[in-house]
Design a protein that fits this description.
Radius of gyration of chain A: 19 Å
CATH class of chain A: Alpha Beta
Number of domains of chain A: 1
CATH superfamily of chain A: Hotdog Thioesterase
Shape of chain A: globular
Number of strands of chain A: 9
Oligomer: homodimer
CATH topology of chain A: Thiol Ester Dehydrase, Chain A
Chain lengths: 251, 251
């Protein structure tokens, strides 16, 4: 039993060494543009070497969503005509539908890869039906912007987005920002719903780090219409830094 | 144009007259056990006269979930051997996958029926993969209990339920309670996450009305393990009474 546990822990340790590439609160949101290795630690190829990045435009995106995407993407890293890379102020965060898709090695981790679990915000296959979104971060200014198109399967009040779906988007954007410096867990979400969001709408979420105190990161977030004139929701969030092994091994 | 708008408003008015049968925050949660009419106001039959109630047990429910269901269901209305109805303290709230499934009449409402919109908490077809839940209310004590089984498509941190999915369950349970006396909208959710919930777990949510002030209803909620020994989440919620036409017509 103890030996088995050692193997589990060994797997977790390997995962921790890869933690720069995954945020542990939102491990899918790599802040590095490097591609994770397509081979496991044991040396065999994994079947998911070319993951689908769901945060790229698709035909279900509205013109507003595309416009916002192009606006923020235009401020990210670009390749010049000469093939050189020019660093932008913002970085687009790729979005996958699995938390530990790229985890390699370790008995426990392998089990998780085999599981059918999917990220809550990416669990609907039909493009445009659920959450469509892309996240952009600005490390220097400690900001994260999320552009979201909220589909017809997210209904709460008639014709409008469910309060829980809005909470989900806020947890995602603020969590992405808080996890830039390591693994975090949500400790508090305080959300004020100002005006309902119609199903199918595109909204912008701007979040900023208010302060850091030891393990705590305080983040605030505003949800507005694309042109910023209508305030839909305001929120604050508190995240706690965690040790990933604590979470996975339940310590 | 004005005439068309009049027809829309007429439809909304008809809906309002039916509002006793639907909560407008969570219109699917009828607190009446009467079945809504299967014919529209225009006299033709609607295709969904026998809706599927998703809050009844299915093979994907865990033994814990079934035990909880039987516990609370046993305190609801029962039919005695003589065929008489004996009133229980609690009422089970049927759960459908559409907000305005039973709305009848009115141009605007008909359009909404035809739409592909689905309730956020019932948008996954595979039993056990998303949210499995049943809600029970006790009108006299102003309480609502939700029993939830949280499936593998609700992942946030590795192997655990997404903070947004937990927020969704809280909005649902507290909203169901607040809407017992009429249509409401969520104004605030303040959620403290105490300990993570493993994917696939069954949890119990107990909510109670703390106070009412004019249009405001203040509700609190606790999320625990089925035996009540582990506190996962605590929350407060504020709901505002609304006029449904205000929401649908955007006034």
């Amino acid at each position: 039993m103890a030996r088995g546990f050692g193997r589990v822990f060994s797997g977790v340790k390997r995962l921790v060494t890869l933690s720069v590439m995954w945020s542990m609160k939102h491990p899918i949101y790599s802040v590095s543009l490097r591609r994770p290795p397509a081979r496991s630690m044991a040396g065999f190829s994994l079947p998911f070497s070319k993951p689908h990045d769901f945060s790229l435009p698709n035909p279900a995106w509205s013109p507003e969503m595309l416009q916002l995407y192009n606006h923020y993407n235009g401020m990210c890293d670009v390749e010049t005509e000469g093939g050189e890379k020019k660093e932008g102020k913002w970085v687009r965060i790729p979005g996958y539908n699995r938390i530990l898709k790229y985890a390699t090695g370790g008995v426990y981790i392998s089990k998780m890869i085999q599981s059918k679990a999917r990220l809550f915000t990416r669990n609907i296959r039909e493009p445009g039906a659920g959450f469509e979104y892309a996240l952009f971060v600005n490390r220097k200014e400690q900001k994260c912007v999320g552009i979201w198109q909220l589909g017809h399967l997210l209904e709460g009040p008639p014709g409008h987005v469910h309060g829980g779906a809005i909470a989900t988007t806020i947890d995602t954007v603020t969590g992405c920002l808080a996890s830039l410096s390591g693994a975090v867990m949500t400790a508090n979400l305080n959300i004020n719903y100002r005006s309902p969001i119609q199903l199918g709408s595109t909204v912008v979420m701007e979040s900023v780090v208010d302060k850091k105190e030891g393990r705590k990161t305080f983040v605030s977030c505003k949800v507005t219409s694309p042109d910023g004139t209508k305030l839909h929701t305001e929120a604050t969030a508190l995240f706690l830094s965690i040790d990933i092994s604590q979470l996975i091994l339940g310590r």
